[in-house]
Amino acid sequence: MRQLLKKLTPPTTTILFGTFFTRTAFFMSTPFLSIYLTSVLHIPLPQTGMVLSAFPLIIVLLSGFIGNFTDKLALRSALVFVAFFWGIVFVLFYFATTFWQFLLLNSLNGCCYAFFEPAAKKVLSLETAPDQRLMVYNIRYMGINLGGFLGPLLSQLFHIQQSLFAYLPLGICYILYSFVLLRTLAKPAPKIAIKKLTQPKTVRWRLVLADFPFIFLLIGVAFSYFGYSQFNSTLAQYLSLAPFLTDGSQTYAYIISFNSACILLLQFIILRLTQTLSATTILIVSNLLLGFSVLLCGIMTTIWGFILIALVYSLGELLLGSRFDTVVDSMAGEELKGMYFGFAELIKTGSVFGPIIGAYLLDSLGIEKGGMIFFILGLITLWGSFFLFLTKKKAV
Q1: Which residues cross the membrane (predicted)?
Q2: CATH number, domain with residue 362
């Protein structure tokens, strides 16, 4: 890996390091938004679920259009402008006080993500040799999880998990990141120069939509994201209200940090152990682990029980995060990378319905029915394995 780091181009290095710093600030704030909305502002659970779902919903609605746009847009302009605007959106979170303000801001948050992520992944792909992309995507994933480990701990250290103060450093980080990108990408390398697309837009859309292994892959992983989203929404609300814990918010902060620590410690070990397995097999195992971790949430009543759940969940998330971007990259032709990475954001459909359904079940069944609530959510998650099996069958 040391040799690979020496070969990284400035744009690649900037995106990888920027990912770490911005995600650290991100995990200081965003995972605790649902707790703040319900515990501090006393916004009802269904409305809180709508706020949380606005982010992935916008991503899903824009996914195909943004992917096509990314294939034609100057990557420098997309990355710099969106990072700057994104920073402003996060700063405005600090001043929000009403349901509608949070709904609007989280929708804008989704717009920025939908533009920025496909462009950043396309830069990583075009700036990296094919045999090195798996490792580069995993380094990026490591940066995300290092931020996920430090962010909640910093939030706990400064006692800001039930406030919006952390959104200020988050916004400032993204604004500074935009200036770093402006400098780094001032003279774009030939590799990320825009290529003239030879196929009409309608043909490119048909090529992607006719790729059935890719479509089944997206459906299957969307169910995995449904389960994944429960740990950022329903579980946070459940623990903050649970009578069997003295400080549910603190327990949740520990779970997030433990989750990221597990991934950091195990990431490259698991990557080496699973090299001989097919990517779809790995994604099926990931879905099973995520589904069973959700099922267990309604059974455990101690912090050690939830630490065990976090371990199972971490393994599922690790297998998903270490392979999905690489699979999408391998399926996409050179001219369609932006389109494929854009469509890949359709997996966030699971994150749209996850918080809404979880909040509805909590509100209608009540906190005392936690076992039934998470049993239902876990069964829904496990449906993803069926579609991932179809992906494997079609791919073969």
Answers
A1: 12-37, 49-66, 73-93, 164-186, 207-231, 251-270, 282-315, 371-390
A2: 1.20.1250.20
